Each structure stands twice: as structure tokens, then as C-alpha cells.
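--- STAGE predict ---
source: upstream dedup step, 1 unique chain passed
mode: sequence only
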Amino acid sequence: MSSIKRDKSDLFCLIQQDAKNTCEEDVSSIDILENKILRFKNIEDLFIFNLVDDLDQKKLNINFYNLFLKYISSNTNALKFLEADLLATFTRDPACKNHYDPILFFKGYKALQLHRLGHWLWNKKEYFSALATQSLISELYQVDIHPSCVIGKGIMIDHATRVVIGERVLIGDNISLLHSVTIIAPKVEDLIVIEDNVLISAGASIIGNINIKKGAKVGAGSLVIENVSEGSTVVGVPSRQL
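--- STAGE serialize ---
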């Protein structure tokens, strides 16, 4: 895999240094961090092991490790998306204290990266494996994202419980989603487009044929059934612009 040469990337060094610092401060963490972070020689293997570990425990006849390895090897942007999402989470989530936290503990981050695997399988028309991956993500992390959904980079899904994203949804870059968000295009002709730098707060629902423009904010518990203009904030049921 050509990208293996990037084994001393800045992010990889930050992840391992945070793990070393934790081991010095809390001896109870040593065994776990040695196994999950410090023994790896490159960031690709570190990501793959940790992201597919929960899936492999389900004992399905699907080799998720090899699938994820092929996904990263055959997509020049795959590793960039993994790293961008991690940095977005580290930067935007005040609960994230270490660069390894999303990889080990944050189910929103894990679910999103495994969705990216499922989306790759979906585009290859390997629908069974894509849907099996979606089903396991939903079971493990309470996050249900249809594998056809297109999601950009630099995404933070905070807490993530009860996040539902259906078919015919296009999500841009640098999006922040909180828990209990529902994004559904109920009719075959519907399409939801969420442009870059949008915040969707806890409990919000976006349902219909909708375009949410760049930099918009959707308030907690809001029901969005109409387009949202660039840079605006909408709240309420149904939502209205402030």
C-alpha cells in the first residue's frame, strides 16, 4: 500500500504521543493503549484495527479487516477523510482531550468511518456487504446511515445516539451533527443537500426535498421542511428563521 510511507505523519505522532502521556499519568491504561495505539507502526493499521474490531466480534463471515484495507488502498482520499474527521472532532468537541479519543471511545466517529466503508461497497454494487455494515453500525452505535448517503470530510457527529440519515442525502464538508438528528428524504423524487459548514443541533429533523445552504444553523428540536438560506439560523416546529 503506497500510503504506508506516511507512517510518521504529524497526526500519527500526535495520537501516539497522547497515548504515551496517558500511560505515564495513568498506569491502568497501559495494556489497552499498548494494544490499540502504541504497537502500530503506521496510521493506516492503527485506524483499521480499531475501526473493525467491534465488527469482527460479531463473527459474521465477512472479513472487515481486508475490506477496510482494500478501501484505504484503492481510494486516495480515504485516509484524508479519516484524519479530517478525527481533527474535526478533536477541534470542535470540548470533551475530546486526546487525539486517540475518537478512535477508541467516540461512537459518532467510529460509525462515520464505517459508513464510509459501507458507501464504498455500495458504489461497487456490493450491496449485501454494504447493508450488513450499516446494520452492524446501527446495532453497535445506535447510528443508522444508509450506505448510499454521500458525506464530505471534516465531520463531527457528537454523542451520535439515534442519528438517522436516509437515502438521497448529500452532506458537505465541515458539518457538525449532534445526537438524535433525523435526515430523511421520504419520496423517491426528494433530495436533501446540506452544504458546507452547517451545524445541526440535537433532536433536529430535516424531512423532505430540502437544501440547507452554507454556514446555516439548525436549532435543537427543530423540524426543517423548507430550504434554509446561507448563514441563517432556524428554530422551531416547523422551523422559522431568527
